[in-house]
Amino acid sequence: MKISGLKIFFPMLLLLIFSCSEKSKSERKTTGEETIQYVIFSKVGGRGGNYKTIKITQDSIVLSLGNTSKNDHKTWKKALSDKNQAEIFGKLKINQLAFIKSSESVQVKEEADETFQIKTSRTSYVFVNAYNDEYNYRQLKNFKIHLEKIIPREYQ
To answer: How many domains are contained in the chain?
Structure first.
């Protein structure tokens, strides 16, 4: 029962995240340099339905975490300074994103799936458990390390 519930919860969470994203004309540029619009990092699954979702836009970070079985939910928000924005998004090399390989879901083993959703001005990328692709995962790992420096410990 728990596994089938998580199989339903995760796609619903992704659908909710994508459907709630604001789209403006400035984000729909098709000419010029490709830029990152936002990154969503999520870790969903494990015993009891743990989840953590972090959405990083050009101007803010919004983190939600909790446990669905305990009905425990927390949210944290922070405006991004220009310095933090440059440091965070500077860790990602857009021309290398297409080489990152995803792996199978581990939620059936009651483990958490790690997902990156990256939206650029031209395309979108979704990576699930890309940490198995050690060579190409490095930029995502560096991105996570920098995020950990910004997010308070009680939310990590």
So the answer is: 1
Q: Quick one: CA dihedral 30, 34, 37, 39, positive or negative?
A: positive
**Angle 143-97-75 from CA coordinates, rounded to 5°:** 40
Q: How far is CA 23 from the centre of its chain?
A: 18
pTM: 0.75
SS3 string, 31-72, reads CCCCCEEEEEEEEEECCCCEEEEEEEECCEEEEEEEECCCCE
Decide: helix, strand or coil at residue 117. strand
Amino acid 101 reads K
| Residue 123 belongs to domain with CATH number | 3.30.1560
Percent of the chain with pLDDT over 70: 80
